[in-house]
Each structure stands twice: as C-alpha cells, then as structure tokens.
Amino acid sequence: MSSTISKSSTTSDFYYACRNGLIDKVREQLSNMTLAEIDQIQANGSTALHAASYYGHAEIVKLLLDSGASRSIENEQHKCLPYDEAEKEEIKKLFIRETASNRFADDGSGHIDWMKCDAAAESLASDYRYRHSGFGWKSKNIDHRLKYIKEEMGHTDNKEVKRFIEQTQSDPFNLLKAYTVESPFYIKLNRDLATTHYDRGTNFGLTYFIDFFYNHPAFNKLSFKGKVYRGMCAVQDDLKEYCVGGKIMNKAFMSTTKDRAIAEQFAIKNVTDRKKQHGENVKLSILCTYEIINDRTGLNVERLSEYRHEKEVLVGPYSAFIIIVIRKVSDSYVEIHLRECEKVNDQDDDDNDFDDD
Q1: Which regions are annotated as ANK repeats (predicted)?
Q2: Superfamily of domain 13-95
C-alpha cells in the first residue's frame, strides 16, 4: 500500500515544539498549517504526533488530533503508531474512539437495520455487487468512477476525509481510509444506503464507492474470512421477526471487529432498564457474530484505520447471512450467530473498457 505522506530531510521547528511541550508555539503554528505539513515525517522518521505522544504532552496530542493529525502513520525505525508510543493512559485515551460513536453497533434506536432476504433482495444484492464487475480497472475506468465519487461524495467539512478522497487517484486505499475516519461522512453514506434504493442511473458516486469496495483488484489482499462481531440494540417486537434458519441482508456498510470485547462494549451502551407494563424489557442488547465465508464480502481495514486497535473488518452492503443460533443470555442480553450464505451469482470479470461519456 503506497503512502502519500511526505518526508522532510530536516527536522522542523514545529516538531521540536511538539517534542518539547511548547504548547503556545504549537497552537500558533497550527493555525497556519495544512494537514500535509502536520503529518510530515521528519528526518528521524517520526511525526510531530509521535513526538508529543512519546514525551507525554497530552494537551499537544489533543491539539494535533483535533486539527486532523493522522493516527495511522507508523514511524520508520520502530514501525510504531503514535498510540503505541504513549506511556500515559491519559494520552492513550485520546486516541480511542469516543463511546458516543456507534461504529460497531447500530444507532440505538432499537430498529434492526436488516432486511429479510427473499428472491427480490438477492437479485438486488447481485446487481449491486456485480453491476460493474466487467468494466475493468484500467486508468480510464478508474478516472470515470472517481469523477463521480468526488463530485457526489467529496462535499465534506472534514479535512481528513476530503484529503483521502482527493488522494484516491494515486492510492485506492485512501477511499477505505476516508470511511474509517470518525466523521459524518460514513454515517451519511450508510444512512443513504439504509433508507433509499438507488436505481440504475442515479447516485453514481455511491454506486461507484460500492464498486471500488467489491471489485477493485488492489483490495483483494484485504479480503477477510472468519468470525467478526458487532453490537446491536433492538426492541423485542423487531427481534421476534427473525428466527433460526431465516436469511437476512445488511442494507449498508457494516463495521465489525475481530475483537469480541470491543463489540460487546458498543452493544450495551444504548440499553435502558425501561420495562413494559408486564415486566418485559423494552430494548435488548444484542451481540452478533458474523461468520464470513466468501471472498471480498469483508475487507480487513485494520492497518488502514485511524483507530487500528479496533481491529475493524468492513462488510459490504447487501451481504446475505443465515441465522444459525439465537441465544437469550439474560432478560436484556441476546447473542445471535449468523453465517454468510454461499455466493451463487458470481460473474466472470474481464478487463473491457467502457466509454467515459
């Protein structure tokens, strides 16, 4: 995976200010710096964020992160992230995604974001997954896709997301990095997918984003098979709609983790003690275990993520799973095991060009 982070042959005053805890000087310089300058790798192979983290300057670490400094750059000599080099717990906590995020769980509304998988749903899933699989990935084809992604999805106030999308031309992995940033970008993308059916000829940006995920050959090395976890909060009545042997499909991209404990933490945070008149819990906390068996359904984005310790595997939209087990652990906690359905609609890929109208 190539890097678009620049390296300096010298060590900047800004780096030394971060290293030495000169917070006033850091604050003054930050206001006039680009993200590329903030993230620049110095002559010693580290960034300013590495230095502030290693030397224990919590306020400076927070300033850098709030300004969009990348959490995911390894220093050259030790291959460590800024998070790895922090000794103080106070600083380590600054790198962790806030628990207010719903990254590895639903939005807490209690509505299950699945749809039942019938023949029509399977046809829609196949269309999304393979709609452009034969277009090829020559330079002209990639330019065509990126034009729509930038035009329709590049409007964001988040500097990190904007930078990643702009840099996708030189490094396709930047498109996945944009998704891992904690910002409204991934939230809006998934809300659009979950609430709207995109027909042919509409919202090409979103369509091509999905196309990159499923079909770009560079992502083959990220393909993940195995068990991943995600939390969910559901009202009792919604859960009753699903039973062992039933097939479901996720409507949007789904952030999952290889670390069960992380998913459990996200699963329980939206649960309340509220009960119905006859004592039944209004909401249930649910831990879902998804077993992925097909290529390219899930991409292991752990090493691309700004939050690498979360061990994220990103599951593509319209992936079909069958419910294997529903186990009620307590009145308010349920575990569901789902196994991916075998793929039957795969289509041959070729490298044909298409006209860029």
Answers
A1: 44-76
A2: Ankyrin repeat-containing domain (1.25.40.20)
